[in-house]
């Protein structure tokens, strides 16, 4: 990849990527670690990441320290944006409005999520909503080669 792909990564993609090493969400996280995808992050989204990781801690088999490492690592790889304008309500789930607002504030074209239907109004803001597997296919077609992967399957470097 020449220029990194920039997007907002919904919480469900982070959790799915940590839960299973074989899915598209995990590949998304690997590409984040490799700098091929640059995620945008707001304070609200970071708190949502933390809340959900702690709630799902047992099923993810992560310790408190590992959750802290994941969040610290993600923060170090992300670009932060402050949200100055609230566009609420826009979505069927008001808890998702901040994700759309971040995409608008960051002027990015995509939100990566498993819940595409929850973001039905995103297109009116010029934001595309895409599933992880669709994104992988799109990026591979655009780049015409599969990105290098120096990370062993199932192991993210910011989870020790």
UniProtKB/TrEMBL annotation:
UniProt domain PIN: residue ranges: 6-117
SUPFAM superfamilies: PIN domain-like (SSF88723)
InterPro entries, per database record: PIN-like_dom_sf, PIN_dom, PIN_toxin-like
CDD domains given in the database record: PIN_VapC-like
One Pfam short name: PIN_3
Protein name: Putative toxin-antitoxin system toxin component, PIN family
């Amino acid at each position: 990849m020449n220029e990194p792909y920039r997007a907002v990564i919904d919480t469900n993609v982070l959790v799915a990527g940590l839960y299973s090493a074989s899915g598209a969400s995990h590949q998304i996280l690997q590409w984040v670690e490799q700098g091929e995808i640059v995620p945008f992050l707001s304070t609200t989204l970071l708190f949502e990441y933390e809340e959900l990781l702690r709630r799902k801690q047992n099923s993810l088999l992560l310790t408190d320290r590992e959750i802290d490492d994941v969040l610290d690592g993600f923060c170090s790889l992300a670009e932060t944006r402050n949200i100055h304008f609230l566009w609420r309500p826009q979505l069927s789930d008001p808890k998702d409005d901040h994700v759309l607002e971040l995409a608008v504030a960051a002027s990015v074209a995509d939100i990566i999520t498993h819940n595409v239907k929850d973001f039905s109004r995103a297109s009116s803001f010029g934001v595309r909503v895409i599933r992880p597997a669709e994104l992988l296919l799109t990026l591979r077609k655009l780049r015409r080669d599969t990105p290098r992967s120096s990370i062993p399957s199932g192991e993210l470097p910011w989870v020790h």
